[in-house]
Design a protein that fits this description.
The chain is mostly beta strands. It has no helices and 11 strands. The chain is globular, with a radius of gyration of 13 Å.
Length: about 120
């Protein structure tokens, strides 16, 4: 079992930056691939970024490529999402997810555990 707790969301102006964190419980955190997803009002939850268990492989949604960076610190059982050049369309609840596998995946169906989410609001 893995429990995930996101933090770092908030209100920011367009062009600003935020760093989200996701703290995970469990001794085997390093054996999980991790991901970030987001859900805007009235829309389905969508993939944002994913990272393999070693951190060697990372994939991003086209909409955030070049602006968002996913990273992990296995010693701290934490992953991060650094977001720069934020746009109003990035406004959503951001969710951290863990999958019982080593490789990074982009489909939400591949993830077994989810956090409660953290709100990110970007004003224009």
């Amino acid at each position: 079992q893995v429990q995930l707790v996101e933090s770092g969301g908030g209100l920011v102006q367009a062009g600003g930056s935020l760093r989200l964190s996701c703290a995970a419980s469990g001794r085997t955190f390093s054996r999980y691939a991790m991901g970030w997803f987001r859900q805007a009002p009235g829309k389905e939850r969508e993939f944002v970024a994913t990272i393999s268990w070693t951190g060697a492989n990372k994939y991003y949604a086209d909409s955030v490529k070049g602006r968002f960076t996913i990273s992990r610190d296995n010693a701290k059982n934490t992953i991060y999402l650094q977001m720069i050049s934020l746009k109003p369309e990035d406004t959503a609840v951001y969710y951290c997810a863990a999958r019982e596998g080593l490789s990074a995946r982009v489909s939400r169906d591949d993830y077994n555990y989810w956090g409660q989410g953290t709100q990110v609001t970007v004003s224009s």
